Amino acid sequence: MELAIQQSPLNPPAAYLWQDPSTLLHTPVRIRIGGSFTYPPQILSRPSEQQPLLSSPRSSSTPPGFKKLVLVAGGVGINPLISILSHISTTRPQPEITLLYSLKDPNSKIQSGDTSQALFLDRIINLFSNQNDPLKGNIKLFLTTTGGPNNTNNISTNEITTKHLSIPFEKRRISLSDVSNAIGEHKDDVAVYICGVPSMTDQFVDGLTSPSPQGLGIDKCRVLCEKWW
């Protein structure tokens, strides 16, 4: 099991897990499995489609009740989404995936091509660019620069090029219109997962599920969210 934890001295669980590794090594930790932010979304899956907690690699399942999967991550909100992406890579059939990932870009290093500065990004790139069996879909980054000199003047295009994949990015936060554009014409056969700070998740969930013209009018069962503080 793997978990990324943001340094938060005032949050007791985070502060505990940010102790020196020598203090934590071999220390028992009790965990609890549960919640509704799971894949595939149980409310869209018929009983025969529901996945066991543990499944064999390359397991096959009946197509879920959606064709398009939109994943929206704010910062360490990428935690459950990398788990979902890793699971999808082992199952068949797969939905079409769009990942919108917003994060801070210290000193514009990510924009300059240093993908190691972004949590789990190298692993995500590998999942989408695996030459033998890549995930179907695309990634878009939303980068906000904080601290240090701004060196974006040396960046000629809003695209990060890796060995097997080019990733577009915007130098701003994700907006509701970005999520709407990712959904496109799939309002009736989409599953949307949103994980981030409450201000982001609340705004997006409300905008996606409110009746038109105020919102997109997507069925609430198709929009799942998980908040972190």
From TrEMBL:
Q: Which Gene3D superfamilies match?
A: Nucleotide-binding domain of ferredoxin-NADP reductase (FNR) module
> What InterPro entries is this protein classified in?
Fe_red_NAD-bd_6, FNR_nucleotide-bd, Oxidoreductase_NAD-binding
Q: Which keywords does the record carry?
A: NAD, Oxidoreductase
Q: Where is the Ferric reductase NAD binding domain?
A: 66-204
Q: Does the keyword NAD apply?
A: yes
Q: Oxidoreductase as a keyword?
A: yes
> What Pfam family does this protein match (any one)?
NAD_binding_6
Protein name per its UniProtKB record: Ferric reductase NAD binding domain-containing protein
